[in-house]
UniProtKB/TrEMBL annotation:
<feature type="transmembrane region" description="Helical">
    <location>
        <begin position="12"/>
        <end position="28"/>
    </location>
</feature>
<keyword id="KW-0812">Transmembrane</keyword>
<feature type="transmembrane region" description="Helical">
    <location>
        <begin position="34"/>
        <end position="54"/>
    </location>
</feature>
<dbReference type="InterPro" id="IPR043968">
    <property type="entry name" value="SGNH"/>
</dbReference>
<dbReference type="InterPro" id="IPR050879">
    <property type="entry name" value="Acyltransferase_3"/>
</dbReference>
<dbReference type="Pfam" id="PF19040">
    <property type="entry name" value="SGNH"/>
</dbReference>
<feature type="transmembrane region" description="Helical">
    <location>
        <begin position="75"/>
        <end position="94"/>
    </location>
</feature>
<dbReference type="GO" id="GO:0016020">
    <property type="term" value="C:membrane"/>
</dbReference>
<feature type="transmembrane region" description="Helical">
    <location>
        <begin position="350"/>
        <end position="370"/>
    </location>
</feature>
<feature type="domain" description="Acyltransferase 3">
    <location>
        <begin position="9"/>
        <end position="330"/>
    </location>
</feature>
<feature type="transmembrane region" description="Helical">
    <location>
        <begin position="221"/>
        <end position="240"/>
    </location>
</feature>
<keyword id="KW-0472">Membrane</keyword>
<protein>
    <submittedName>
        <fullName>Acyltransferase family protein</fullName>
    </submittedName>
</protein>
<dbReference type="GO" id="GO:0009103">
    <property type="term" value="P:lipopolysaccharide biosynthetic process"/>
</dbReference>
<dbReference type="InterPro" id="IPR002656">
    <property type="entry name" value="Acyl_transf_3_dom"/>
</dbReference>
<keyword id="KW-0808">Transferase</keyword>
<dbReference type="GO" id="GO:0016747">
    <property type="term" value="F:acyltransferase activity, transferring groups other than amino-acyl groups"/>
</dbReference>
Length: 661
């Protein structure tokens, strides 16, 4: 097994891997576990790389420099051209923040660490990740890190230890155990980091270094193992989905499947091996690397440019485009470099790689220095894009799990007298700060704002420790200070129902099962809110319940800026009022029941300011975005709806005037 004769079946395995990944990313039904194609690549890579190293070490002609030069020749030219293409496409398509993020991705990837960058951001399967053109390079970073470390490790072990193969196998087991543990405790690290992925590459490595005499099998056994290996791979591709805890133990199916196929067809060419070695499969396998490089940026930029969801024909067109680009990359970039028709010497390829790394790294870094080059955009598109972020002053008034909670309260207006309002809630309470500031200035009122991200203003068993402490602190402030009114603001439906796309994020779970149940969540919400209102009312304070703003189906700044960049109209974007009312029906009924039972409870609703008689809820006004994302009001949006707070401020002013008589 130490020889490295060309194996057509391995190219066929590459074909299965890339087809699975591409069809998964393009959302083709059935391929819900296509992400395991990356694991197939890992095992193949471990096998081939170790075979090369070990064969050359046995022949006493292994050179680290030659090895890394070959890796550079194999991987970097096509990768760098793809990244350059993404930068060019991004210049014309991406909003400043996204172009800045693309630059960061390039900067990290040229030093083989993009997996570290993406680990700290949104999860691989999150919707936000669909707007990252270089997300797929995380797997290349893992492989490149392995290529740097493994030759040194293999040389050290094989030259110093008699039973070095057992040591290598022990490292495999340790990495697998770490992966299983991390999936349960640190899933993002388990997915992205080399220590938790190394066992997959080492599984291929073990195939390459175990003596051939230890692997002999009968033809019947080889046929059975080969067929079983293919079955394990297909089972993972069709049975897994993004909810599968991965990699961990679940990765055993594709990894063991690939090991079985490589081993069995190393014994003899099986029927499965003949299928994998067919002309079509080998052809796809040959271009698999370049196709993998191009398919994801094509999909991301296609989504970005379309603005609306892509239809089947559009997806089919993008699929074909990615395949053509992959073929062109293989034909005109990969093959000439691998066949040494370009930069034939190792010094030449390493020097060119170094120059390209410096150049692309500098370009990527400069995009951050230039804030994503905002002057590329028209004034209108730029104005929409800039609505994505709140002002630093507003952010300073929002606590979250990453802050030390030293500033839970922000005070506006004169902080004395008995007529003062406390605005208490999650980030939606903080989003109202521009409107609160205007109200304080206009009516001479006094307002204290307390907002904690993702924290509904009543204590919950499932809350983060920071949220629980925050609510306890606000309750303590209420008992110590003279507030006349308490305004409760939150994205209520998030805690009851989760995100609009499903129950992800719902935190009012069934305490008996620890799982989500809509009826239980609604009941818990009603009971908790009624108890909180009762508690506040018992202290003699008025309560104002603020209903949610309409939740949109898209990130508003993204969509509006992209529409403006494409020259398309923006003034008819928004959510149908019927959808908003349907989602809020139960919550609104609870609010209305509480208010009807107690004249000291009042309702405030920003939706009428955003939703008109024609039945839709707008997201822009006068060329400005009213939201920072799909649910938070922007500074402009808060001021656009601020009139809905007029009853509160009029009440505060009347109380102030009455107390001064």
């Amino acid at each position: 097994m130490t020889t490295l004769a060309y194996r057509r079946d391995i190219d066929g395995l590459r074909a299965i891997a890339v087809i699975a990944v591409v069809l998964f990313h393009f959302g083709v039904p059935g391929f819900t576990g296509g992400f395991v194609g990356v694991d197939i690549f890992f095992v193949i890579s471990g096998y081939l790389i170790t075979s090369i190293i070990w064969r050359e070490r046995l022949a006493q002609r292994f050179s680290f420099v030659d090895f890394w030069a070959r890796r550079a020749r194999r991987i970097l030219p096509a990768l760098f051209v793809m990244m350059l293409g993404a930068l060019v496409a991004g210049w014309f398509l991406l909003a400043p923040k996204d172009y800045d993020e693309l630059g960061r991705s390039v900067h990290y990837q040229v030093v083989f660490t993009s997996n570290l960058l993406f680990m700290r951001q949104d999860g691989y399967f999150d919707v936000a990740s669909d707007l990252k053109p270089l997300l797929h390079t995380w797997s290349l970073s893992v492989e490149e890190q392995f290529y740097i470390i493994f030759p040194l490790l293999l040389t050290l072990l094989s030259s110093r230890l008699k039973h070095w193969r057992m040591a290598l196998f022990t490292l495999l087991l340790a990495s697998f155990a770490l992966s299983v543990w991390a999936v349960a405790h640190y899933p993002e690290k388990a997915f992205y980091l080399l220590p938790m992925r190394a066992w997959e590459l080492l599984a291929g490595s073990m195939l390459a270094v175990v003596p051939a005499r230890d692997w002999r099998a009968s033809p019947a056994l080889a046929q059975a193992v080969s067929l079983a290996g293919l079955g394990l791979i297909l089972l993972a591709i069709f049975a897994y989905d993004p909810s599968t805890p991965f990699p961990g133990a679940a990765a055993l199916l594709p990894v063991v499947g690939v090991v079985c196929l490589i081993w069995a067809n190393g014994q003899q060419l099986t029927l499965t091996g003949k299928l994998l070695g067919s002309r079509l499969m080998v052809g796809v396998g040959l271009i698999s690397y370049s196709w993998y490089l191009w398919h994801w940026p094509v999909f991301v930029f296609g989504n970005y440019a379309s603005v609306d969801d892509l239809g089947p024909w559009q997806l089919g067109g993008l699929f074909l485009l990615s395949l053509l680009l992959g073929y062109a990359s293989w034909r005109f970039i990969e093959a000439p470099f691998r066949e040494r028709r370009l930069l034939a010497g190792r010094r030449q390829i390493l020097a060119a790689a170094g120059i390209a790394i410096l150049g692309l790294g500098l370009i990527g870094k400069s995009l951050g220095w230039a804030d994503g080059v905002p002057w590329r955009l028209s004034p209108n598109a730029l104005q929409f894009a800039q609505a994505r972020t709140w002002s630093p002053e507003l952010m300073a008034c929002l606590s979250d799990d990453k802050k030390n909670n030293h500033r839970e309260l922000c005070r506006f207006g004169p902080q004395f007298g008995a007529t003062r309002a406390l605005v208490w809630g999650d980030s939606h309470a903080s989003a109202l700060i521009p409107a609160l500031e205007d109200g304080v200035s206009t009516y001479g009122a006094s307002v204290t704002q307390a907002g904690y991200s993702g924290c509904v203003p009543f204590s919950r068993q499932e809350s983060t420790p920071g949220c629980v402490k925050f609510n306890q602190r606000v309750t303590q402030v209420l008992s110590q200070e003279a507030f006349s009114d308490v305004v409760l603001v939150a994205r209520w439906s998030l805690y009851v129902y989760g995100e609009r796309s499903g129950d992800t994020g719902a935190s009012l779970l069934d305490p008996t099962t620890g799982k989500y149940d809509r009826a239980v969540a609604e009941q818990r919400f009603s009971e908790a809110l009624r108890a909180l209102v009762q508690q506040v009312r018992a202290s003699g304070r008025r309560v104002w319940l603020v209903k949610e703003v309409p939740l949109q189906d898209f990130s508003v700044p993204y969509r509006l800026s992209r529409l403006a960049m494409l020259g398309r109209p923006t003034d008819r974007e928004g959510l149908p009022l019927e959808d908003h009312l349907k989602r809020q029906a139960y919550i609104s009924s609870v609010f209305e029941q509480i208010a009807a039972a107690d004249p000291g409870v009042k309702l405030l609703d920003p939706a009428p300011r955003l939703c008109n008689a024609t039945g839709w809820c707008r997201v822009e006004f006068g060329g400005r975005a009213l939201y920072t994302d799909d649910n938070h009001l922007s500074d402009v949006g808060a001021r656009y709806v601020e009139a809905f707070l007029e009853p509160l401020f009029l009440s505060l002013r009347h109380q102030t005037e009455a107390s001064s008589l």
